[in-house]
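Record Phosphate-specific transport system accessory protein PhoU, 226 aa.
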Amino acid sequence: MVETSSQSQNQKRTRSDFERQLHRLEQDSLRMGALVENSFLLAHAALFERDLEAATRIDPQDKQVDAIYRQIEIDCINLIALQSPVARDLRLLSALMQLIRDIERIGDYAENLGDIAIKLFPYPPSPYLGELEVMSNRCRAMLAMSLEALANLDENIGLQIKAKDDAVDDDYKQIYNLLASQKLFGGEPMEPVMLMVLAIHHLERMADHATNVGLRVAYIVTGKLG
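=>
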């Protein structure tokens, strides 16, 4: 009887330790998400406020994101290997490993947008910069929603993001058509147009990854793939 009681206490202690580690992983994922969200804000300022100093601050932050990403991945693998988690915990860990990859990719695209802002700086602002800003604001809102869904493990918010992706896709098509029909005169350089095409591509991919984060949160909660 004493032995059984001791075993029960050990199991409870092990479970408590495991839950603490899970909570730390969730907090680290949110910390990583906050850094990526800030990188997006810096890229937005660089593009639409012509704030080149903001663009230079993205790279050091992205290195922090990459370091946190690698550590979370290692910690998730160790927990799966050493703790033999039950089904719901395994679902959380596997989905967490996937969604941090999505968040990390959004950070990479934010860094790319900062680079585009620097290359665009010597040229006059594009006539379609306003449309691009609308698209960027939609993507930023989607990222904020995805992080809110993750923070609260709210499947409803997670699933709502998917519907918002359609508007970003429409923005992409509209701006691409505008850029494709833009007429250049007197030997005007093609580079600004090409950079704008790259910018809408990066934003569209950021929206896709934010959608993925929302769907993975819904999967964690419900066990159903969106």
